Amino acid sequence: MSSTSGTSGRNGTEGAAPTGSLAHRVPDLGALELLLAVARLGSLGAAAREVGITQPAASSRIRSMERQLGVALVDRSPRGSRLTDAGALVTDWARRVVEAAEAFDAGAQALRDRRDSRLRVAASMTIAEYLLPGWLLALRAERPDTAVSLLAGNSTAVAERLLADEADLGFVEGLTVPAGLDSAVVARDRLIVVTAPGHPWARRRLPLSPDELASTPLVLREKGSGTRQVLDAALGGLARPLIELSSTTAVKASAVAGAGPAVLSELSVREELSTRRLVSVPVDRVRLRRDLRAVWRTGHRPTGPARDLLSLTRR
Fold first, then answer.
1. Which of 36, 87, 96, 257 is most buried by its number of CB atoms within 10 A?
2. 52, exposed or middle or buried, with CB in 10 Å at 0-12, 13-18, 19+?
3. How confident is the model at residue 261 (pLDDT cuts 50, 70, 90)?
């Protein structure tokens, strides 16, 4: 005896009026895929197994679809399940819908592949020059097909790139997280005062005082850089720069050449300190430590290669 009948009155489906939005009138893709499986296999039980649900759940889904459409779709008997005339017609339409959904899915996957094949990174100068290359090398080992573009600038420029959706992930060195961005600490750094060996500070026996450092013209990064922000906040103000430069490498080269003392990341001067091309000058009662942060637009947690790169920075 059939559980669903070709006679629509038996199922209470005749005369059901279509109401509401299209989403309420058209069965979902899962139901349509089940109907196609019933048509192809001739068995509700086999169709249920193919789509990965139980037979009672499949029966319930067919009945729900019949109520939704207002027509009977499947007759069941001990010999199996067969489509009603209306069911055969609905199945033809369902096949077109499922094929369109498959095309939609293929297109979406292509977009995901295109997104996941590239990574736009914006990084402040110290991180871009001394930390990011190692991270990107590790990322290449995990994602060899990912094309990475790097935009280097100061911390303010990094924030602007992210907020303009011109970068997927950023790295900054400042004291605070720019508005509109979320962050995670990925490393910690210390700023140190350095000078060429011939400078009078290189022969000092006593540490510099905060006032002495603040009142001395220094070779500095430009305004907006994380290094400049940390130093300015720690000293409560700075003298007019002796020279103002837009990269850590340029500041370091000027200090090595004897232009004057500079304040740089400890990460950036290890080689110069070890070869005595620069000398570290101690400073009394000034905290020059800072957090290095990964940043991204608020509400847009990194995904794909950006997520992988973020994970690599924490290893």
1. 87
2. exposed
3. very high
